[in-house]
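Dear all,

This email documents one entry for the complex benchmark we are building for the journal club exercise. For each entry we list the sequence lines for every component of the assembly. Then comes the predicted three-dimensional structure of the complex as a token string, followed by one or two observations. Please use this as the template for your own entries, and keep the labels exactly as they appear.
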Amino acid sequence: MKTYLPHYFKKIGIIIVLIAIALSFIAGANETEKGIIEDGNFAQSVNAFTNTKDVPMTYVEIISPGTANTLNWISIVFSMSGFLMYIFSSEKTEDEFIQKLRYQSLEKSLLITWLVALLFFIFRQVEFEAFYILQIQLIAYVFIFHRYKTRYLTD
Amino acid sequence: MKNLLKVERAKKNITQAELARLVSVSRQTINAIELGKYVPSTMLSLKIAHVFETTVNEIFELENTDWFKK
């Protein structure tokens, strides 16, 4: 598999993925708040701490739904871009052994991705949008390739 | 597959790093070959044999198990 980017793009890719994770947390702030409020235990803890009795927690919209959708979209774009930069950047030393490990990682990640997609399709428990399946392949590739490097490229 | 890479290196007094530099691979690749974790390509095998001034057959040897698919 050809690599197109210099080695330092690995760090850039990681930074972009971290930004994507942060954006997704911000985008999910409203849902997180709803979840916390619906969980009665947290409300009881707050009441106990503030020494108030049975004061219900009210939901306050942190960010607008439109902003949340936009942040979600940006997060997905950043995430995919970051992973692609990481995957297609060179190792410090590129040789035939690294190329072989790349091909094996690609093969395994493809298999894992389609097995997961097949399971979700069969059991229909969760609606899975296509780009999440692509994300799974990118993430799986990164972990598998890293595991191969750790196992085979020892000192 | 067995290999006598370490023995040949000792004969020529070459480190893994130096051999890796001469055949344009990483030192970890040479280490993986010596430990039997990686079977080099024909090209790389020929390069290694050229560095040690010997033939590929003198360095790499097939074992009985190599004849059967895993």
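Observations: Chain B touches chain A at residues 24-26, 28-29, 31-32, 37-38, 40-41, 43-44 (CB under 8 Å). The longest strand of chain B covers residues 2-3.
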